[in-house]
C-alpha cells in the first residue's frame, strides 16, 4: 500500500484524527438510524468498506488510496470499521462493474468509488443503493443520483478559471493547444466543458488541436512532442491536468522551444518545472484527500448522520504568489506525486455541514 507524505506529517495528522475519531465513537455507537440516502437495514459498526478503484497506476490514484487507507486505520481505532476491501479495475469500466457487484454480493456496508464511466456504472451503483449500502462517489462521477453522496470540486469552474487565465495572459489573441485527460471520464470532460464558454466568448483564441491522454507525464510528453513538430507557432497550453502540464513543459524544453503560458494542477513535477523554467503558470488542485473524506462521509451516513447529497470542495488557486508555499512541502510527497493541502476532521465536518 502506498502512503504519501512525510512520517512526521502523517503522525501529526493521525493524532488529530485519532482524537476526533475517539469522540465520534462515543457519540455514534449502536445501530444506525438512517438519515442519508441508500442507508437501510440493521447495519452496525464496525463496518466493512469497499474501495472500487478504477485504476491504481497513476501516482495521483496511489496517493488517494493512501489517504483512504489512513482514514480507515483511524476509524478502526475508533471501532467504526473492521475491514477495507480494495479492487483495481485497471482502467476497465466493465471490470469495475464486476468488482462492485462482488462487493454487493459480499454485503459490504459502504462502497467508495471513482467511476471509470459516467453512465456505464449507473445500474450497479443503483443496485448497491437499493440494497441499503452506503455509496459515496468522488472525483469522476456517475450520472445516477442513487448514491449516498457525491464529493467533488467543481470541474466546470476548474476549466473556466484556467481558460480565463489563459485568455488574460494572451490578451485575448493567440494559438493554443488544449490538453485533456481520458475521454469519457467525467472530471476530464467536465473541465473541458467548463472552459468552452470562455473560449467561445474570446474568438481571438484559436485552438490548434486537442489531446486526450492518461494523467501521466510520459504519454502527455509524447503527445506534445508530436504536436510541436506539427505546429511551429504555439502561444499557450491550456492543460487541464497536472501531469499533462509537466509532460508539456518537458516536451517544449527537449525540443528547444521557448516555454509558453501553461495551466495545470498541483503535480509536484509541474510546480518544480514552473519555478525552474520561470514559467508563466496557473494551477489548482483536486485534493487526494477526497478519498479520505469519502470514507468518513460513508461512515457518518452509516452512523445515522444526515450527509449532503453533494459535497462541494473549494478550488484553491496556485500562482506566483502561492507556489513557494507548495514547493516548501515538496519533499513530503513523491517526485511524481501531487502536493496536496493538509486535512483533518475539523475540515471534513465543515464540508459535511454545507
Description:
The chain folds into 2 domains: 7-153 and 287-315 and 342-352, Response regulator (Rossmann fold, 3-Layer(aba) Sandwich); 155-284, Response regulator (Rossmann fold, 3-Layer(aba) Sandwich). It is built from 12 helices and 11 strands. The protein has helices spanning 7-27, 59-77, 93-105, 122-130, 155-170, 186-200, 217-230, 242-254, 268-277, 290-302, 323-327, 345-352; strands at 47-53, 81-88, 110-113, 134-138, 149-152, 174-180, 205-212, 236-239, 262-265, 281-284, 310-312. The chain has a 6-stranded parallel sheet with strand order 2-1-3-4-5-11, sandwiched between helices. 50% of the residues are buried.
Quick overview of this protein structure:
By secondary structure, the protein is α/β, with parallel strands linked by helices.
CATH superfamily of the largest domain: Response regulator
Quickly count the helices. Answer: 12
The number of E-state strands comes to 11
Topology order in helix (H) and strand (E) letters:
HEHEHEHEEHEHEHEHEHEHEHH
CATH class wording of the largest domain: Alpha Beta
* Percentage of β-strand residues: 15-25%
Residue-averaged pLDDT, rounded?
90
Helix content: 40-55%
Instruction: Describe the sheet with the most strands.
Output: 6 strands, parallel
Content-based structural category: alpha/beta
| Spatial strand sequence of the major β-sheet | 2-1-3-4-5-11
Distance between the termini: 32 Å
Pick out the low-confidence regions. 1-33
* Rg result: 21 Å
Number of domains: 2
CATH topology name of the largest domain: Rossmann fold
> CATH architecture of the largest domain, please?
3-Layer(aba) Sandwich
From the spread of the alpha carbons, the general shape counts as: elongated
Family: Belongs to the bacterial solute-binding protein 2 family.
InterPro entries: Peripla_BP_I, SBP_2_dom, TAT_signal
Keywords: Signal
Domain Periplasmic binding protein: 50-306
Amino acid at each position: 500500500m502506498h502512503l504519501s507524505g512525510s512520517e512526521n506529517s502523517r503522525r501529526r495528522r493521525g493524532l488529530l484524527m485519532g482524537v476526533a475519531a475517539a469522540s465520534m465513537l462515543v457519540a455514534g455507537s449502536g445501530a444506525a438510524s438512517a438519515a442519508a440516502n441508500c442507508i437501510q437495514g440493521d447495519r452496525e459498526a464496525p463496518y466493512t468498506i469497499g474501495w472500487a478503484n478504477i485504476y491504481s497506476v497513476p501516482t495521483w490514484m496511489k496517493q488517494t488510496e493512501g489517504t483512504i487507507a489512513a482514514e480507515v486505520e483511524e476509524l478502526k481505532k475508533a471501532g467504526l470499521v473492521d475491514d477495507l476491501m480494495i479492487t483495481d479495475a485497471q482502467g476497465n469500466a466493465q471490470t469495475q462493474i464486476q468488482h462492485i457487484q462482488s462487493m454487493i454480493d459480499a454485503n459490504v456496508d459502504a462502497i467508495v468509488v471513482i467511476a471509470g464511466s459516467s453512465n456505464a456504472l449507473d445500474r450497479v451503483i443503483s443496485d448497491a443503493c437499493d440494497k441499503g449500502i452506503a455509496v459515496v462517489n468522488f472525483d469522476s462521477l456517475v450520472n445516477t443520483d442513487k448514491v449516498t453522496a457525491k464529493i467533488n470540486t467543481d470541474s466546470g469552474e476548474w476549466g473556466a478559471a484556467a481558460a480565463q487565465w489563459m485568455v488574460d495572459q494572451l490578451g485575448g489573441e493567440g494559438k493554443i493547444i488544449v490538453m485533456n485527460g481520458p475521454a469519457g471520464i467525467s472530471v476530464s470532460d467536465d473541465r473541458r466543458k467548463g472552459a468552452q464558454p470562455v473560449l467561445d466568448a474570446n474568438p481571438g483564441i484559436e485552438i490548434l488541436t486537442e489531446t486526450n491522454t492518461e494523467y501521466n507525464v510520459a504519454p502527455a510528453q509524447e503527445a506534445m512532442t508530436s504536436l510541436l513538430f506539427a505546429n511551429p507557432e504555439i502561444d499557450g497550453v491550456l492543460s487541464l491536468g497536472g501531469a499533462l502540464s509537466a509532460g508539456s513543459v518537458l516536451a517544449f524544453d527537449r525540443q528547444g522551444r521557448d516555454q509558453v503560458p501553461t495551466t495545470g494542477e498541483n503535480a509536484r513535477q509541474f510546480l518544480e518545472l514552473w519555478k525552474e523554467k520561470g514559467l508563466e503558470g496557473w494551477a489548482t488542485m483536486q485534493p487526494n484527500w477526497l478519498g479520505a473524506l469519502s470514507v468518513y462521509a460513508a461512515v457518518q451516513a452509516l452512523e445515522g448522520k444526515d450527509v449532503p447529497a453533494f459535497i462541494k470542495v473549494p478550488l484553491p488557486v496556485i500562482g506566483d504568489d502561492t507556489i513557494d508555499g507548495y514547493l516548501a512541502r515538496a519533499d513530503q510527497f513523491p517526485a511524481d506525486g501531487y502536493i496536496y493541502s493538509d486535512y483533518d476532521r475539523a475540515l471534513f465536518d465543515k464540508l459535511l455541514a454545507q
